[in-house]
Specification:
The protein is mostly beta strands. The protein has a single domain (2-142), classed as Purple Acid Phosphatase, chain A, domain 2. It has two helices and ten strands, in the order βαβαββββββββ. The strands form two sheets. Strands 3-2-1-9-10 form a five-stranded mixed sheet, with no helix packed on it. A five-stranded mixed sheet has the order 4-5-6-8-7, with no helix packed on it. Strand 4 (64-69) and strand 5 form a beta hairpin. It starts with a strand and ends with a strand. Its EC number is 3.1.4.-. InterPro entries: Calcineurin-like_PHP_lpxH, Metallo-depent_PP-like, MetalloPDE_YfcE-like, Phosphodiesterase_MJ0936/Vps29. Its cofactor is a divalent metal cation.
Length: 143
Amino acid sequence: MRIAVISDTHNHFPSGLPALVAGADEIWHLGDVCDPAVLVEFEQLGPPLRVVLGNNDSHPWPLVLRLEIHGVRCHLQHIPPARAPRDCDLVIHGHTHVPRDETIGGVRWLNPGCISYPRGRGLSFAWLAIGAGRSIHWQTMPL
């Protein structure tokens, strides 16, 4: 499965972003959407769009999503938790506006960066590919 992971749109995104993620099997937004109308173009692409609640959101999205794909247990949350939740292989978060790919205590922590208001590294999103046999590939994509 090939997943486009975005975060921290804060009411806007680069005009070419929907075309870049159009081939995704799913799109995950890690919060701080702000205005749900920002998601319309992504919803119209067709693949499932999963969204978690950010600290600047007032829409009733879930605070946490737990998903399992090909045996890989994913924990999606806007603000990174203080420690990895139990029974989790990947913690995927936003909030910091800085890309991350780090393994701590056997759990991989991932952040795609941000679509708006970058902190030193520019705008980015990420591709997450999870395949049979629990294979995981993460690639941050600068915009």
